[in-house]
Structure formats: C-alpha cells, structure tokens
Amino acid sequence: MGGLKVIFKKELSDHFTSYRFLIIFSLIWMVSLLITYMVGTSIRDELSGVTKPKYVFLLLFMSSGGFFSFIQFVAFFGPLIGVILGFDLINREKNEGTLSRVLAQPIYRDAVINGKFLAGVVTISIMMTSIVLVISGLGLKVVGVVPGIDEILRIVIYLVISIVYISFWLGIAILFSILFRSVTTSALASLAAWIFFTFFVPLGAGIAAKSFVPPGEADKTEIILKQLSIQRSVSLISPVSLYSEASSTIIDPTKKTTRAYVLMGPFEKLSIERFSGPLPISQSLLIVIPYIISIVAITTICFAVSYTVFLRQEIRSL
Amino acid sequence: MSVAVIETQNLTKQYGPQKAVDNVTFNVYEGEIFGLLGPNGAGKTTIILMLLGLTEPTSGRARVLGVDPTRDAIKVKGMIGYMPENVGFYNDMNAIQSLKFIGELNGIPKDILQERIESALKTVGLDQDAKKKIGAYSRGMRQRLAIAELLIKEPKVAFLDEPTLGLDPDATSRVIELIETLRKEKNMTIVLCSHYLEMVQKLCNRVAIMIKGKMVAQGEIEKLAREKFGIGQEEYTLEEIYMRYFMEA
Ligand SMILES: Nc1ncnc2c1ncn2[C@@H]1O[C@H](COP(=O)(O)OP(=O)(O)OP(=O)(O)O)[C@@H](O)[C@H]1O
Ligand SMILES: [Mg+2]
User: Fold this and answer.
1) How far is the CA of B88 from the centre of ligand 2 (A)?
2) Alpha-carbon distances of A25 from A31, A39, A133, B212, rounded to whole Å
3) How many domains does chain A have?
4) What would the 3-class secondary structure string for B154-209 be?
C-alpha cells in the first residue's frame, strides 16, 4: 500500500511538471474557451429579447458554434490526451533502467502500474473538471443564465463519462507501452488505434451496412432502416461512437433514444424532437446507462490486460 | 564468518531451451565480500535477480537471511540493497529527490530519512551537487549516487553488479573505497559481480567463477590458485587463475 502511494505521488508530480502536460492542457483550454465564447455569444444574440428556453445552458456544450461543439471536440481530441499521457509510461522506464531499480525495492509490482494508471486518471480528472468549470463560468457570464439542478447533474454525469472515456485511451496507451519496448512504436500503435476507431470503424460500418443491401432494392424503407441499424451497431464497437452517443444523449435532453436515428428519417426526427418535451434526467440516464457500462467495461478490460501482461513479464525483458 | 547469509542449492534458471544458471550451489557468509566472476552471459545477473525475488528459479532452492525470495520477495527486497548493472535514475530529479523517493519506497520514516540522506550524500561526496539534476551527472557521480542509495536503505546484504563499469581510474578507486566503507562501517555482506579482477582481488576473500551457467569454482582465491597451479603457488593473480578456468571450460 505504501508503495502505491509513493509511486502515485511521483507520477502525479511528473505529469504536472512536464512540458507535455502543459502544452496539451493549454491547447484544450484555448480551444474550449474559443468554442464557449463563440457558442455563448451566438446564443446570447439569438436569444436577446426572447425568454430563455429551458436547458439553454447545456447548449454551451452541445451546439457547434461554427465548426464543432465541445462534446465533439472531446470525443475527437480526448483520446489524444490519454495517449499523450500514457504512451511511454512503462517502456521509458524499462529503457532508462529505472524500473528494475524501483522493483528491487520492497513493493509489489502492481503498485507501479496501479500508481501510474491512477495518477493518469487523476490528472485527466483535474484537467477535465477545470475545463468544464471554466466553460460554465464563462457561459454564465456571456449568456447570463443560471443552470438548474437538472442541468448541473447532466454536466456532472457528462464529466464522469468523459473522464472514463479518456482513461480508456490512457489504458490503451499504457498497454502499448508495456507491449512495445520502443517509445516510438508504442506512440504509433496508440495513434493507430485512435485513427482506427475514430475514422475507420465508422467508415467500415457504412460499408458493411451497404453490402447488406441487395442491388435494385436500395430504396425500400425497410431495407434502409435495416441498413441504418447495422451501421449503428457496427460503429458501436468503437469507443468513440459509444462515447459520442452517451455524451450527446446526456447533455441533450431532447434526444429521446439513440434508436431514433434508425426508426425515422432525419427531418422527421428533428421535428418530433423539437415538438415533444425534453426528457427528465432519469429518463436520459436510463437510455445511456448501457453505454456508460460499456465504456467502463472496456476501460476495465483494457487495464486488466495491461495489469496481467505487466505482472507476468519476465524481469529481464523489463 | 560462519553464519550463511545467502544459501543456494542446485539453483537453476532456464530461459527457453537455454540454461542461464545451471545447478548452482554456494553460500555467502556474514560480513564478507563475495566475488561473482564469469564472462559475459555466464549467468551472474540472473543469480542476483533470483536471489532478489525478481525472477523465479526454474528449480532449486535459495535462502536470503533465511527467507525464500520466491515466497516472500517483499521481505527479501526490504533487506537487500541492489545496484544493477547500468543503474537508471530519473534524470529530471536531483540527488535528494531521488534518494527520498527510494527511502519512501522502503518506508523509512521522514526524520530518519532526512538525516540519512544528508550523511549519505556527504559520504559519497555528492553534497555539493545534491541539488543538480541527475541528468547532468557524470557516470562516476551516478555510481556514487547508487551507493548513497544503499547507505540510505542500510540493508544487511548488498548486490553490486558491475559497480565500476565505464569508470575512469580515479572514479573507480573512489567506488572501491566506498564499497569497503559499506562493509566496515555498515557491516554489510556484499556480493560483487565484476570483470575488473584487480578490484575483486583487492576486495574479496572468496570468489566463485561461473562459465555458461555453471559454477566451475568457488572458494578462497589462494585455494583456487593451489588447485590450478599447485601447492606453493598462491601468489598467482586472480586474473591468471580466472583465465586458467576459462581456457579449460
Ligand atoms: N529474458 C531473457 N530471455 C532469454 N535469455 C535470457 C534472458 N535474459 C538473459 N538471458 C540469457 O541468460 C544468460 C545469462 O545472462 P546474465 O545476464 O545472467 O549473464 P551475466 O553473467 O550477468 O553477463 P554480463 O557479464 O554480460 O552481465 C545469457 O546467455 C542471456 O542471453
Ligand atoms: Mg550481468
């Protein structure tokens, strides 16, 4: 137990004093502030004179003020945060010979990997929480509405999902840093995983869905629906899609069910969503719970694999 | 010189088809500096790793201060100091931070640790450079810092794997002095692996020679000289004795 605490402390201070952390932290700060400012001012301008609708505060996170929303930004860029924090955590220590020195002290081997993962998760949490707080603060000032309890709860849940999501990528990066001796290789492997899940899986899902459609029958509604449902299920093997679905559902109270996309056309969906009332938070939560469980599960699996591989590795290959 | 601090019996380590350590039996006694010799790849480091509980023996038995390193690695690692070949440090720490980190991993209370760090840095002559980043240290300074780590931990037994590798003559003699300090002032039992036989001869009374995983000789240096060159030939240097064993193997 003592070993874990010492390692955790060291890793945490390593993160917070590294240039790498500083650069990535300022980068997301800049982008987030920019998005918030743009979204905030456009909300304010559009809503000046009219009574503010419910949930206007959440728009800060979900509407894309020009290019992309904060949610989209985190879905896309969050993996990079995890990867950058984790891709060399183990192999760098192997290469510099510090790992065998540390492991020769009276600590369990798992203290090292647990300490590193935990420190990474805490770093991610601090980073994300501070950003969400700043966005809320800035939004408060620019838009001039105070969020209700419901909105705050939604934001908190969103924050938790985001932290788990980025931690998943941290886990992937740590796994590669255990599997590959070279720091460059582990970095590339992590990036490849990111590109694969962000770009290839959605693309592949589309292709897979199309290949199910017999030629000549392409415009039967039934088939189109089937196609969409296939595309959706396939793309959900990607943590990126899982996260996007979960976070947009929890932040957007008007998003009824993630199945809505499949069951009706986009315009139909839009009109129905706008006219029927927003969901209470408990209902939104009910919809996203399976997604949250999936994200937590893949993160746990990923860490468990790293843990097992690391503990079984022969010390000479460390 | 009678209490065995380290005992091994038929210790064997197999990496795939290759036996890195093959049926090795030897003892190290309290208060001695025991030299573990052998060409590259002979299995010296592998023996140390098994005694530390960092890797499991394929077969055979080992006891360090009466404890089985395979069963209770944590206990053994708490009692043993280890200076690996090519010691690695966190380059952006300074000497004090590095020693503090190791002290904390060993659960040494804060106030005691503070004192030990100060005196250890003085002993190894790094008190002037204590606030410098280790990344800026010379090889000799790093080796001395590694010895300071042993002073902090105050183990009963220390394994030194190639402590003078790549050091200039001056740095080497400083390290040799420090190794003697460890034994005399801290009463450590030391296992020393080295290719620098002159130093081994100066420091050690008993040595063991390993070749391709097998321990081909062990005992007092004079005894080995008698065995290879005949009675009355004890003045042969360790180098000559070693080469004899090496050629024969
Ligand atoms: N992880 C491993 N997998 C396979 N073989 C290994 C592994 N680690 C070491 N070996 C082999 O074990 C043998 C003993 O190596 P060891 O490092 O113990 O030798 P050594 O006596 O310390 O050599 P040196 O003087 O070069 O430090 C070598 O032949 C080496 O190739
Ligand atoms: Mg060696």
Assistant:
1) 15
2) 10, 21, 14, 53
3) 1
4) CCCEEEEECCCCCCCHHHHHHHHHHHHHHHHHHCCEEEEECCCHHHHHHHCCEEEE
For ligand 1, atom 8, the nearest C-alpha belongs to A316
Please spell the DSSP secondary structure of A94-115, one letter per residue: HHHTHHHHHHTSSS-HHHHHHH
How far, in Å, is the centroid of ligand 2 from the Cα of A6?
Answer: 29
Token reading at A40: 């905030």
Closest to A6 (Cβ–Cβ): which among B46, B78, B101? B101
**A14 in a structural domain:** yes
Q: Kindly state which CATH superfamily the domain B4-248 is placed in.
A: P-loop containing nucleotide triphosphate hydrolases (3.40.50.300)
CB A85 within 8 A of CB A15: yes
Give pTM, 2 decimals: 0.90
Query: Tens digits of per-residue pLDDT, B55-90?
Result: 999 999 999 999 999 999 999 999 999 999 888 999
Quick one: tokens of A220? 């039967």
- Three-state DSSP state, B17: coil
Q: Which residues line ligand 1 (CB under 6 A)?
A: A 314, 316-317; B 15, 20, 38, 40-46, 85
* Amino acid residing at B4: A
Determine the structural domain holding residue A307 and report its residue range: 2-196+292-312
* Cα A163 to middle of ligand 1, angstroms: 43
Compute and round to an integer the Cα radius of gyration of chain B.
18
Write out pLDDT tens, residues A222-280: 777 777 787 777 777 888 988 988 888 888 877 655 544 444 445 555 555 555 567 77
Q: Whose CA is nearest to atom 4 of ligand 1?
A: B15
Q: Which B residues 3-22 touch A at CB under 8 Å?
A: 15
How many Å apart are CA B83 and CA A105, to the nearest integer?
A: 11
Beta bridge partners of B64: B6, B67
Can you tell me the distance from the alpha carbon of B95 to that of B120, in angstroms, rounded to the nearest whole number?
A: 11
Q: Which ipTM did the prediction report? A: 0.91
Which residue is associated with the tokens 């839009």? A270
Is the residue at A262 inside a domain?
no
Q: CA A112 to CA B33: how far, in whole Å? A: 32
Paired tokens of A81: 């945060």
Min Cα separation A76/chain B (Å): 32
d(CA B197, CA B195): 6
A217 belongs to a structural domain: no
